[in-house]
Amino acid sequence: MLADSNILIYATKPEHTELRQWLIEKLPKVSVISKVEILGYHKLHVAEKVALTELLGTLELIYLTPSSYEIAIQLRQQRKLTLGDALIAATCLELGYTLATRNTLDFTWIEELKVINPLEAH
């Protein structure tokens, strides 16, 4: 399973204790793209950066491969999709991972991609 950027961001919010528990139980992997998206946010406060860096440090980081790039290109040729979403979805498709995201609707058109919203499960 691969956790999307938004899942990690929500997990650092005080009101999402059940999501943090879900992360501890499932230990999803995270794309290097999510790390760039999260820590590269220009309005990130110091406390948020510390919490997110700590969380990222507990999860296995997945790097892109040449196949990921090719799959992302194919996805973007089919429909409007952000570069980050295309690369994360491509990584899941290549490795057979389920994508854990709050934005499930962004990915429903990708038939081969398994998507769950851990926030709905709680």
If you had to describe this structure to a student in words, what would you say it looks like?
- By secondary structure, the protein is α/β, with parallel strands linked by helices.
- It is 52% helix and 9% strand.
- The chain contains 6 helices and 5 strands; from the N terminus they run βααβααβααββ.
- Strands 3-2-1-4-5 form a 5-stranded parallel sheet.
- Helix 1 crosses helix 3 and helix 5 (66-78) packs across helix 6 (83-95).
Question: Summed up, what is this model?
Answer:
This protein is of the alpha/beta class.
What order do the SSEs take from the amino end to the carboxyl end, as H and E? EHHEHHEHHEE
What is the gyration radius calculated from CA atoms?
A: 14 Å
Helix share, percent: 40-55%
Can you list the strand order of the major beta sheet?
3-2-1-4-5
For the record, the count of structural domains works out to: 1
Report the CATH superfamily.
Answer: 5'-nuclease
Low-pLDDT stretches: none
- Classify the beta-strand content into a percent band: 5-15%
Q: What's the total count of β strands? A: 5
Helix count? Answer: 6
| Main beta-sheet annotation | 5 strands, parallel
CATH class: Alpha Beta
Structural class: alpha/beta
Ends: how far apart?
18 Å
- Could you please say which CATH topology applies here? Rossmann fold
Q: Please name the CATH architecture.
A: 3-Layer(aba) Sandwich
Mean pLDDT: 94
Taken from the alpha-carbon principal axes, the silhouette is globular
Q: Helices, strands, pairings?
A:
Layout lengths: L1 E2 L1 H7 L5 H10 L2 E3 H8 L6 H13 L2 E2 L3 H13 L4 H13 L3 E2 L14 E2 L6
Parallel strand pairs: 1-2, 1-4, 2-3, 4-5
